[in-house]
Amino acid sequence: MVIQESKKDSNVVTFVTPNISYFTEQKYLTDAEMAFLFRLSTVLDAENCINREGNQYLTQSKLAQRLEMSRETTNRLIGALERKGLLKKETNNNANSKTAQYKVFVNPNILFYGETSCAVPLFIKHLFAEPVRNSIMDKLPFKV
Description:
Elements: E1 13-15, H1 17-26, H2 31-40, E2 52-53, E3 56-57, H3 60-67, H4 71-83, E4 87-91, E5 102-106, E6 111-113, H5 122-127, H6 135-138
Antiparallel strand pairs: 1-6, 2-3, 4-5
Helix pairs in contact: 3-4
């Protein structure tokens, strides 16, 4: 039997374990929020965006379907993680859409697409550079 090497690049999402350990010690995240972040790792793209398929940004309803969760739970967890500084929503100004669409990005200080922190696009680093008004996020042991 011969094993062929795949020429296709693998999608790699890196969890920033010192920060996850810190969040656990500080009891900063609920079990549901931690599980949700783990699920988000399966849909993250190269710009640390969680709700894009191709050039289209998914509504939270479609994202919930993709994650096999209820829309209400998805919306609640996105809101909670956004308030904690781990997600950032930006309005996608698409004149052709009748429903509000948001780009939802994950803070690269918790997880990011790529094998090294160097792979995080600069604009994502800047997106999360503004300080969050809580001491836990200010004292992260590792900053991307």
